[in-house]
């Protein structure tokens, strides 16, 4: 089962994230196979925080991986519940001294940006096959942004791209990963 979840996640990165150029840095890491995939089955939020800590340590000790995706295969189906957990992880990052070392991004099958309509195609820039936390190395993010022209406009460009593709196409792209 975990192999299928990882394959679907990898398909999403390849077809949606890289295919739409939502993250201009993802193709390199996908090709280098430097993305670590961790599938979490149903646990408690405390156990998830323990997994998050373990993954911070794994990235600290292992330069082979650039980034980690923690995939919640059976939990956090409700976006609001997931968002509460995301807020907890952001505070955890600060409280445990990882701020400035790692960044956390998040994705969810029902992701909705603040003040966006549920059917806005722009939501698909952060929609994924499963709820996920994405751990990024802060130094790598800073280096990538410094070497990428107009990096601050990536989110606006992504929104424009998703809306240009349209809701049906964005939805189909995500469904095709499964």
Overview of the molecule:
- This protein is of the alpha+beta class.
- It has one domain.
- Helices cover 50% and strands 13% of the residues.
- The protein contains 7 helices and 4 strands, in the order H-H-E-H-E-H-E-E-H-H-H.
- Strands 1-2-4-3 form a 4-stranded mixed beta sheet, sandwiched between helices.
- It is globular, with a radius of gyration of 16 Å.
- The two termini are 13 Å apart.
What's the gist of this structure?
This protein has helices at residues 2-18, 26-32, 45-61, 79-95, 138-146, 154-165, 167-176, and strands spanning 35-40, 67-72, 102-107, 132-137. The chain is of the alpha+beta class. The longest helix has 17 residues, at 2-18.
Which characteristics define this entry?
single chain, 178 residues, alpha+beta, 4-stranded mixed β-sheet
Instruction: Report how far the terminal alpha carbons are from each other.
Output: 13 Å
Using only CA atoms, what is the Rg?
16 Å
Looking across the biggest beta sheet, what order are the strands in?
A: 1-2-4-3
The arrangement of helices and strands along the chain is: HHEHEHEEHHH
How much of the sequence lies in strands comes to 5-15%
Major pleated sheet: 4 strands, mixed
Number of helices: 7
| Count of discrete structural domains | 1
On the 0-100 scale, what is the average pLDDT?
A: 94
Model regions low in confidence, pLDDT < 50 over at least 5 residues: none
What is the helix content?
40-55%
* Overall 3D form: globular
Number of strands: 4
Helix-strand makeup class: alpha+beta
